[in-house]
């Protein structure tokens, strides 16, 4: 794949709220209509779909949007933040370059408050049901807390360093009117946050969100006719491990070694840039430890230095490497990966008001899907 | 220490020998019948060798804690508020390094789990079933 051949021309989101009395389809379509209008298009202009296996299908969304023809539609086979970022963009890139379509819609909806919530995915695994749930080892906070304790054993990680991951994301959320959790939080506030699965407090975990989000991908030369500055996809990288979801939290040689180095290397190679060239980053923050490790894997700091990187204030507003500038998933809202990608686009367009990173031209977006990982490099042309 | 009550679901009989072992005070894990190497968690098929089968073998009662977490809010389906806190450890038997068995940490409230801690199998009665537990050695 070549750098700069596709661009993200439209983005849309619904409000981020904990519980919304709308269906998944309604929220997905609301966000999709927003993204299509943002691209200066009409629904009939959309001729490609890349949907997620956990969301509605392209025919359901297409019907609701009133779209008659669907020459290209595909479904991503990765979960979490990988699917709606790197995997979806890879499929959109291939379809547009092959001439199958001109404008690809990537719609996504998420209902954390549906029965079973974000944990139902895990409870369906027979190995978890028989080996893990009977001893209470259940739910992402426990899985990732176990990673954090192992990371601390291998590299060292103080409570202050762990807190310094979530605190800057809250600072960015304070500057972002659409963020879901905006009340200020300092170290004292962090320590008041209820413990869930030590060392994780509520503040170390992503939010529970009901919402929709969507974006439109177009050929970069077509994007020049769109209403906004062109934000091109310069680099795309995907990484995977051999471990299925039922085993990766316990049996991988290192339980916190996500395939993020592999995806970053591929994305930087395609873009012809390095981590030192970035102006800002959006890093998938399902939990504080996952953002910390991915910051290392992206190359924002060395291995084992993630705690010190965040504790230095680098990720804060005004810091040398702003991270999660709309509050990320821990303060902004949790629609896996896609809202981070959308924030990257908005920063590169300019006009983020108090949260705008000055002269932002190059942004990395990471998405973690447990045993898969995506790194995307966006650039303002 | 609380004890979570959530019986194994047993969609299949695959894991029954694990619980039969615990009831007998033994830790039994799966191994590849041809190579003799441990294969844990038991995969439905051996990676890359579809004809291979699994056998159950007794593993060491003693080993180390790979990692752990102290659960203060249980996310198990249903109301489990009365069962917290408890600590889950990932146990590595001495003779099966890299194979990790989730279990309850069995110790007084004044003892905290730690990575690298030496522990021994100590099955725990959880309601009407027995689950894996591990207690500090010494």
Automatic annotation (TrEMBL), chain A:
One of its GO terms (molecular function) is acetyl-CoA C-acyltransferase activity. This is Thiolase family protein. Gene3D superfamilies: 3.40.47.10. CDD domains: SCP-x_thiolase. Pfam families: Thiolase_C_1. InterPro entries: Thiolase, Thiolase-like, Thiolase_C_2. Residues 248-379 form the Thiolase C-terminal domain. It comes from the Bacteria.
UniProtKB/TrEMBL annotation, chain B:
Residues 56-121 form the ChsH2 C-terminal OB-fold domain. It holds the Pfam family OB_ChsH2_C. This is OB-fold domain-containing protein. It comes from Alterirhizorhabdus solaris.
């Amino acid at each position: 794949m070549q750098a700069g051949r596709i661009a993200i021309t439209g983005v849309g989101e619904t409000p981020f709220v904990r519980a919304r009395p709308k269906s998944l389809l309604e929220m997905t379509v609301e966000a999709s209509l927003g993204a299509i209008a943002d691209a200066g298009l009409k629904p009939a202009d959309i001729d490609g779909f890349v949907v997620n296996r956990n969301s509605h299908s392209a025919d359901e969304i297409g019907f609701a949007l009133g779209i008659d023809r669907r020459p290209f539609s595909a479904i991503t086979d990765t979960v979490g933040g990988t699917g709606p970022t790197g995997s979806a963009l890879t499929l959109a890139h291939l379809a547009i370059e092959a001439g199958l379509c001109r404008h690809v819609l990537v719609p996504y909806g998420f209902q954390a408050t549906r029965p079973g919530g974000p944990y139902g995915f895990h409870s369906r695994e027979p190995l978890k049901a028989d080996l893990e749930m009977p001893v209470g080892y259940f739910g992402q906070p426990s899985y990732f807390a176990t990673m954090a304790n192992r990371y601390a054993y291998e590299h060292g990680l103080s409570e202050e360093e762990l807190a310094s991951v979530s605190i800057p994301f809250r600072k960015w959320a304070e500057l972002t009117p659409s963020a879901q959790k905006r009340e200020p939080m300092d170290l004292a506030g962090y320590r008041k946050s209820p413990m869930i699965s030590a060392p994780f407090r509520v503040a170390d975990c992503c939010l529970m969100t009901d919402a929709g989000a969507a974006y439109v991908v177009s050929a970069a030369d077509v994007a020049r006719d769109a209403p906004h500055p062109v934000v091109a996809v310069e680099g795309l990288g995907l990484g995977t491990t051999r471990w299925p979801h039922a085993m990766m939290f316990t049996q991988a040689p290192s339980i916190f070694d996500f395939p993020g180095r592999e995806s970053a290397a591929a994305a930087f190679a395609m873009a012809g840039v390095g981590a030192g060239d970035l102006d800002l980053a959006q890093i998938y923050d399902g939990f504080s430890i996952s953002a910390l490790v991915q910051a290392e894997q992206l190359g924002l700091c060395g291995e084992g230095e993630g705690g010190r990187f965040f504790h230095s204030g680098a990720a804060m507003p005004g810091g040398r490497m702003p991270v999660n500038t709309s509050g990320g998933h821990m303060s902004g809202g949790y629609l896996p990966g896609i809202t981070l990608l959308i924030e990257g686009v908005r920063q590169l367009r300019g006009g983020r008001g108090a949260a705008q990173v000055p002269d932002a031209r190059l942004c990395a977006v990471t998405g973690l899907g447990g045993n898969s990982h995506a790194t995307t490099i966006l650039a303002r042309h | 220490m609380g004890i979570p009550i959530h019986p194994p679901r047993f969609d299949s009989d695959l894991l029954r020998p694990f619980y039969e072992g615990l009831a007998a005070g033994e830790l039994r894990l799966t191994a590849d019948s041809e190579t003799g190497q441990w294969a844990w968690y038991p995969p439905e098929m051996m990676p890359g060798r579809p004809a291979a089968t699994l056998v159950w073998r007794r593993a060491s009662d003693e080993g180390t804690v790979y990692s752990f977490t102290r659960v203060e809010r249980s996310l198990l389906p249903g109301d489990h508020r009365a069962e917290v806190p408890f600590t889950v450890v990932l146990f590595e038997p001495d003779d099966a390094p890299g194979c990790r068995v989730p279990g309850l940490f069995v110790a007084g409230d004044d003892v905290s789990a730690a990575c690298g801690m030496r522990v021994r199998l100590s099955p725990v009665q959880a309601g009407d079933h027995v689950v894996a537990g591990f207690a500090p050695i010494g």
